[in-house]
Design goal:
Blueprint lengths: L3 H12 L9 H12 L3 H30 L4 H35 L1 H4 L5 H5 L4 H31 L4 H29 L15 H27 L5 H27 L1 E3 L6 E3 L1 H45 L3 H19 L3 H5 L13 H8 L22 H15 L5 H11 L4 H10 L1
Antiparallel strand pairs: 1-2
Helix pairs in contact: 2-4, 3-4, 3-11, 4-7, 4-11, 7-8, 7-9, 7-11, 8-9, 9-10, 10-11
Protein name: Rhodopsin domain-containing protein
InterPro entries: Rhodopsin_dom_fungi, SAT4-like
Keywords: Membrane, Transmembrane, Transmembrane helix
Length: about 450
Amino acid sequence: MTSSMDKLALLVRSTVPFNGNTTHPKQRERIENAAAKLDKTTFLALVGIFTGVAVLAASTRIFFNVRKRGKLFVDDMFAILATCCLIASTGFIYYIHDWMYIAAAMASNPKKNGALYTKTEIASLRGLLKWNNLFFFFAWTCITAVKFSFLALFWLLIRDVSRPLLWLWWFTVAITTVSWIFNGWRNAIVCGWSSASKCAPAPPYVKEFGWTSSALDITTDLLIILIPILLLRNSLLRWAVKLRILGFLCLNLFQIAICLARTIGGVIRGRDGRSVAFGMVYIFLLIHVEASVAVIMSGVTAFWTVFAARIRDRERQRQSTKRRSPGICNSFMVWLRRSNGKSKTNTLPSTQKSKKPFLTGEITGGTLRGLGTFIRRHERESGLTTNGITALDSQYDPLQSYHEYIRKENTRATDIPLQLQTQGTLDQMKKPEPSLQLKSNDY
């Protein structure tokens, strides 16, 4: 059983002279552009521009994160992996773009456009499938790595929030992994790895595989949008800040639109109306744009961090200016409260005015210095230490207690007759005796 590539080779032998192609290159390029529905120069320019912007955004992200955090984390590693895969897929496109346009022309009208190419050019299409599989693998790895980068960032925010949100995160991880395996290897499953017998000159369109691929891609995008929305719902941020964050997440809606455009518009029908094949140039461009936008999204998070910091600084400045320059109504209320406070203090009795507070000095608060001032009677006298104190030093001194007691009694009993005072003093002199007796017993 001869393959479709062998049939094309037989067709070329009967239509192309042995010494090569006789068609003008400009005419052939015009036919290729019409078959691919996109000019070759425009195609390469779009691929280069999107790749350049994505690499710039990713480099800026790494610069800001290293400068702010001091090292790279898991989400940064996924972003670096996505950038490397994007650069590799871009290199594949620039390497095989001539073959892609030849395959597009051959897929649109094999009998007519087969006369445009030499036998060598047609035979070179045999190795195109291997490069197609490599491009799909690296492009979908790039897209999936960006999704895992966001999931790694969300993990730091939701791991201690709620259990349902944690289950949603794990479900998103599982669906994203399944999407990467299916989309990355779908072309190899349908066409094989290096044999072009089933997919020459363009891969056939399998409806079930096409819509399953789109459904998985869209589902993962929606789940990644849903997680921050649930986080923002329970946050205390202002609505303006929430809307800015959701506006940034609208790039994921752009990803969904690209996926739908790729699924609906990337199909080429033959002249008979029954044969269906993928438009290779169109599909490759949209997958590359989706991967580039994904890397740009991962890079914009660094700009968003700086933007959020500026918003916080602006809010703090606004609050500080409000405290410094209150409005007329607020100033009047403050003056009224102060005047009421002064009137209340003026009505206090003179004894309360002259009464000193229990603790003088500044209020120290709940600090170790506050504990120290409490021990030292709030700095009114030097504190006592227990270093070097023995049991004998801490015992009761009856003689000193006796003299202090006599001194107090003399000041209180100035009006009492001398006899009563002497009698009362002799009676009170017996009070220190238990302490003297206790000391003698100790010895």
